[in-house]
């Protein structure tokens, strides 16, 4: 049985990670998981929020948003509505936590890095693409900060790499990296964030139709770990390529 | 090794579920998990939101909030700040999804039930106490709606029961139902929502300090399933007691 | 002629004042006037708002709110609406002014006490119950601050006691402490805040249907003063009981 | 002993009521109580708010605001702050209630009249000047609606007249119609709204420094009733003058 | 062919500029262009916004608003809506830029002047009347600041005068200073801000119905420059008259 | 004398117009004017806003926004601030007016087209790039609507083409299409919107440092008209190329 787009259940969509997409940001990536395209920038500023001043420790945070026509039907802008929706809040927090999981605040020093993940086109898995791309932008921003001596020589704020993927059960079959049409039909939907060494940073599973059994959970975790490992390889490849900016 | 409050790692805090706490609401419960106290009301209204009209299906939603002095330090009211924070949004959505997982919309008919979960006193696990208590308030509201003929005789909108508990790894030891002081020290923190038959509705695990391994995840899930089963028994007991209202 | 609930015109509803209802707050009270239940907490913080810094004087303020299902029909949360309504504003200001009327700012020193009055169940007279309960929470908070040496020994910030009651004319008869069903039918509605020695802190009378004559005003004031005196006795009794917290 | 501005304790400031100040509004008045100047407009629209439709009854409501430099120090605009303050809310509600006290909704029919009271210059007593002026604008708007046949011939929505004045105790002496400098020093401050026949619509007394005794309250009410009676005469005079618009 | 109100195409409406309209503001003007009436106040405060501190330079800014019944149909207050509309923002910014064009920040020193332009009655050209009136209020505020020694003797922050007028093409004819009824019918609408020596500060032309040709643009600019010159004369006359305040 | 980037005063930056950049939107364009990159989508929906229903006429509107790191320093998101700034409002309104200038509402029928212009990277001239790109997206959306029979065969809602360019005086020299570094130094700054036949839709000139003379205005208009003509040619070329989507 093949999937909507011809993939096997264990197969990621074509993933591309283009660095240097912005002339202004300290790190910037256009990441695509199939038709899902997220523009990730990392902005470095000296200093930290007030509540952290004098601690000698840095801070990393993230904001996620969708362009109004990233989806099939145009959505109202949150700036126009005057309030950020629950989904946006939730995903921004998830991205922030995921990247902070591989940050050594002491090594970062009193610097702040903000990751902005703006979805240009959505086709399922926007939050996992965002985390995967934001990590690469973050890594470039750290390199930039090293070069500018904002981070002391010999200190490495990154304690590992991090990537994310969605998995789900569709028609009883566990699938990796759901596109939108699969996501809509999924009985169970899970987003998994892993470090490069295969440990978990976040596991968020939701029963969409039916509660799921322990076995199903295990199958999904297997798929996700394999997917994240593959994404970690792609991140590494992207980061070792020359950045012609 | 015993815990801060003398419990074993597998032990829940003392749980109480008091029904009939409001003279106005169709279902109402004061639930406590140790010193965490959440006031849950279920409000039934005929009709559904506009986007669901004419579908013949009902709707269930939830809102979570904390009183300003529910915590050790007074927090500003979200009404005064003029915006709902990300954490509040996230938990409200979690509670809503958890309860919808055991609802048959067709059987509910075009009625809406809103669960309000207001934390009177917080000591860790407010979202899991809220889900556990809200289920009981929901069950009472369904009974009320049956009596008022809002739901047709012979139709049962509840397809099961649902309860939730937090688990976490503290000092390397997996613990059930963390109180605030444990939560703060947890390396990994997980909230698990289960149906009464031991299947999963939501699994949300977060690495607070260190990424966690598959094994640790498994230990935590074991603990959580046992805890939810125990909570399901307490819910059943509460619901079979006479409601003197 | 007896009232809806069998009381005489001069009779208060059963009043209870339970102290120590929160393990976090410096003072906390669950006050009930019949079915009206308000949870009052007093939060002490060292320091004062910016505009008062260096004055050597303290500050006392209050916030009032209703849980969404405190009333017969569920109301939208003000946090969700993103703005505080006029009624909420008005009552919060009334409570703050009432308590400040018995505060000696110099004796309080540069400390701030915030009174939060959250209505758990509403049946008329929520603002008067809130003032009456908040005074007791405030007194406990002052005791706490004395013990912590935030207030200098020998200085008493409380210059008196304060309580409040509603009165109104229903069917031509002046009644004390209106419940919701009486309030709705009242031709004139008045909230009176008195000190323990029978003087006035606030008098707010409103003609709901017909303008009222001086005579009627006098009758209502007589009733209110008697009611407040009775409430002052109950406050004193509550405060002299041991607080087992 | 004479007052700051040479008045006797029982004396109003010079009061002027200029009608026809706007070419657009159905009723419009520039009212001044000494240096306090309030621009009041009455806007008539056919139809009523949704919750009142089909009742056959009309609605009257009011909004109060201050221009940013109405006061000695410039205040931020509430439109810029994005929220209406408690004081504004409170006064808007007071003005609305006061005018509704002399309205027969049935006679008004399904029409809405909105009173806008914008303070151009403030020198104490802005809310009482607003009520006094708004009544005259309202009366003109009712005449306009009669002429346009929005109100049926022979029906009079106005059941009386209404005016308001502030009173207070300054240096132990009860004074009528406080200007700003007196208001700031008042021990007790009271706003009284009366109908033309000397009955009360609103009585709002506040102890600013010391709680006040029954006797003082009585003195203040005497002063206020006399002041309102005088204002009623001035309103009548203004309304019988020709409106050259 | 004569215009709606009998003017020639090159004729301004009757313009009045009354100074000293507020007892509180450092400069204040009631300006009218026919039935358009705008109340302009200039508020001086020592100090500048944070981003300008220590620069030795001052700041000038403006806020524009309409009273709800300034227009033929009542508009909702922006304070009630909780947000400022695009039109308000746009005009406030235009007024601020126009006045800053004749300010020497160094000579002003670290003082801030805020111009508030509140439209009491609108009949077309409110933004141009506002700029014209605000300049006069600004000049009075500068005089005040000189007298108070906030501005150093011998330094003149005003580098020139500024006035504004609207022009438009109605029925193919270029007209000066459109009233509302003309504005509504205009094919092209232009607001022009000039200095007293006939140079341009702002030119904002908009095709309302048809795009306009270079020739038409030229005709409109000719009209506008002549109109501004006339307004500059009126401003000068107003400012040389004695201010009896 | 050559410019910062080597251009002559009369030279546009390299302009690219890529169509089909979104798989969801009915029209979509990535437009670049040098390093300024704006993503424009056109979203078609059947029906019109309430105030236009039953008129048989369509509606076109626009929203402009910047990604937080489109600029050299990261800006806070307007969704997070909870309000749209004046600059955003102003530009959104300008884009909307500009495109409506070439729309025949009757021919469009009761359909709405929303243009979203999101700046991915800013280097001066974002509003003019947005208008130029949005026109192309609009043209594609009209074609789409024709194919879907939302617009009747034989009716052409586009009455012409529209493009925009900035001009300014830098160091006394009139320049076409300012980049950011030129814009910052400009004495006068003007945005001009023209139709393809060289007539004006909008002319917005602002003196940044010095008021400008009629002559300078004329020079700038000459430059702008030539620039818009060139842009119109590029738009035509882009639209005649095959859209491989």
TrEMBL record, chains A, B, C, D, E, F:
<dbReference type="GO" id="GO:0000175">
    <property type="term" value="F:3'-5'-RNA exonuclease activity"/>
</dbReference>
<dbReference type="GO" id="GO:0000049">
    <property type="term" value="F:tRNA binding"/>
</dbReference>
<keyword id="KW-0819">tRNA processing</keyword>
<feature type="binding site">
    <location>
        <position position="87"/>
    </location>
    <ligand>
        <name>phosphate</name>
    </ligand>
</feature>
<dbReference type="InterPro" id="IPR001247">
    <property type="entry name" value="ExoRNase_PH_dom1"/>
</dbReference>
<dbReference type="GO" id="GO:0008033">
    <property type="term" value="P:tRNA processing"/>
</dbReference>
<keyword id="KW-0698">rRNA processing</keyword>
<dbReference type="InterPro" id="IPR015847">
    <property type="entry name" value="ExoRNase_PH_dom2"/>
</dbReference>
<comment type="similarity">
    <text>Belongs to the RNase PH family.</text>
</comment>
<feature type="binding site">
    <location>
        <begin position="125"/>
        <end position="127"/>
    </location>
    <ligand>
        <name>phosphate</name>
    </ligand>
</feature>
<dbReference type="Pfam" id="PF03725">
    <property type="entry name" value="RNase_PH_C"/>
</dbReference>
<dbReference type="InterPro" id="IPR002381">
    <property type="entry name" value="RNase_PH_bac-type"/>
</dbReference>
<feature type="domain" description="Exoribonuclease phosphorolytic">
    <location>
        <begin position="11"/>
        <end position="141"/>
    </location>
</feature>
<dbReference type="InterPro" id="IPR027408">
    <property type="entry name" value="PNPase/RNase_PH_dom_sf"/>
</dbReference>
<comment type="subunit">
    <text>Homohexameric ring arranged as a trimer of dimers.</text>
</comment>
<keyword id="KW-0548">Nucleotidyltransferase</keyword>
<keyword id="KW-0694">RNA-binding</keyword>
<dbReference type="GO" id="GO:0016075">
    <property type="term" value="P:rRNA catabolic process"/>
</dbReference>
<dbReference type="GO" id="GO:0009022">
    <property type="term" value="F:tRNA nucleotidyltransferase activity"/>
</dbReference>
<dbReference type="InterPro" id="IPR018336">
    <property type="entry name" value="RNase_PH_CS"/>
</dbReference>
<dbReference type="InterPro" id="IPR036345">
    <property type="entry name" value="ExoRNase_PH_dom2_sf"/>
</dbReference>
<keyword id="KW-0820">tRNA-binding</keyword>
<dbReference type="InterPro" id="IPR050080">
    <property type="entry name" value="RNase_PH"/>
</dbReference>
<protein>
    <recommendedName>
        <fullName>Ribonuclease PH</fullName>
        <ecNumber>2.7.7.56</ecNumber>
    </recommendedName>
</protein>
<comment type="function">
    <text>Phosphorolytic 3'-5' exoribonuclease that plays an important role in tRNA 3'-end maturation. Removes nucleotide residues following the 3'-CCA terminus of tRNAs; can also add nucleotides to the ends of RNA molecules by using nucleoside diphosphates as substrates, but this may not be physiologically important. Probably plays a role in initiation of 16S rRNA degradation (leading to ribosome degradation) during starvation.</text>
</comment>
<dbReference type="InterPro" id="IPR020568">
    <property type="entry name" value="Ribosomal_Su5_D2-typ_SF"/>
</dbReference>
<dbReference type="GO" id="GO:0031125">
    <property type="term" value="P:rRNA 3'-end processing"/>
</dbReference>
<keyword id="KW-0808">Transferase</keyword>
<feature type="domain" description="Exoribonuclease phosphorolytic">
    <location>
        <begin position="161"/>
        <end position="226"/>
    </location>
</feature>
<dbReference type="Pfam" id="PF01138">
    <property type="entry name" value="RNase_PH"/>
</dbReference>
């Amino acid at each position: 049985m093949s999937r909507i787009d011809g993939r096997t259940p264990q197969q990621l969509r074509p993933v591309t990670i283009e660095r240097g997409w912005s002339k202004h940001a300290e790190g910037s990536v256009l990441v695509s998981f199939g038709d899902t395209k997220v523009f990730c920038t990392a902005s470095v500023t000296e200093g930290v929020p007030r509540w952290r001043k004098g601690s000698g420790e840095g801070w990393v945070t993230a904001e996620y948003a969708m362009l109004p026509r990233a989806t099939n039907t145009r959505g109202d802008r949150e700036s126009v509505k005057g309030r950020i929706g629950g989904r946006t809040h939730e995903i921004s927090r998830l991205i922030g936590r995921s990247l902070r999981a591989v940050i050594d605040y002491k090594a970062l020093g009193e610097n702040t890095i903000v990751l902005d993940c703006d979805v240009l086109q959505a086709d399922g898995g926007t939050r996992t693409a965002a985390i995967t791309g934001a990590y690469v932008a973050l890594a470039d921003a750290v390199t930039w900060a090293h070069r500018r001596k904002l981070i002391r020589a010999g200190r490495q704020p990154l304690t590992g790499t991090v990537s994310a993927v969605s998995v789900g059960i569709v028609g009883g079959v566990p699938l990796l990296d759901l596109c939108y049409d699969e996501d809509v039909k999924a009985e169970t939907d899970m987003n998994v964030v892993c470090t490069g060494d295969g440990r978990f940073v976040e596991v968020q599973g939701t029963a969409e139709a039916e509660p799921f059994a322990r076995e199903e959970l295990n199958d999904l975790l297997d798929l996700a770990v394999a997917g994240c490992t593959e994404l970690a390889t792609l991140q590494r490849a992207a980061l070792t390529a020359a950045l012609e900016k």
